[in-house]
Amino acid sequence: MEENRAVKMKKQKLAMWTKYLLDVMFYMGIAVTVSLPVTIRKIGDLFPYMVEHYEESVVIYFVLGIGALVLVRELRRIFRTVLAEDCFVKENVLSLQKMGNWSFFIALMSVVRSIVYMTVAMTVVILVFVIAGLFSKVLACVFDEAVRYKQENDLTI
Q: Mean per-residue pLDDT for 112-119?
């Protein structure tokens, strides 16, 4: 019994730290996205192609930043239910579906960005977000089934 409580405490602590990390990422993401017009000009010495395509870079990275913020917002919503120990709810299914859609959108915008200027790293980013989108969609299906089982079980009791 004491062992179960220790395991539960570790899980709760991990979930709390992850939630704090997501909170920091969310607010830092807002700051980075809002400051793009200034920061892209400032890093021009390191990445001259970004300054050569300044307007395109600002728009593309702004859209990518918004997509990333939406993903992190949905993750934060899911973690609220994890911390409340009630994660098999319809809201999480919807969040996972949205995360899948936004992951595919980010992959598509990354393809558009590659048209402006291609890097090997962007190919990896595209692949990662396609996989994240597929993973989110599959996980949404799994959660949907779990919610259905939970509701049936609740009606049985």
A: 84
Average pLDDT score, the chain? 91
Q: Could you give the CA distance from residue 29 to residue 68 in angstroms, rounded to a whole number? A: 8
Which residues are within 8 A (CB) of 109 and not within 5 positions of it... i.e. 6 or more apart? 60, 63, 64, 67
131: tokens are: 């996989």
pLDDT at 7: 82
Please state the φ and ψ torsions of residue 86, each to the nearest 5 degrees.
Answer: -145, 65
**In terms of DSSP H, where are the helices of 36-119?**
36-42, 48-52, 54-83, 90-116
Residue 67's closest CA among 40, 101, 37? 101
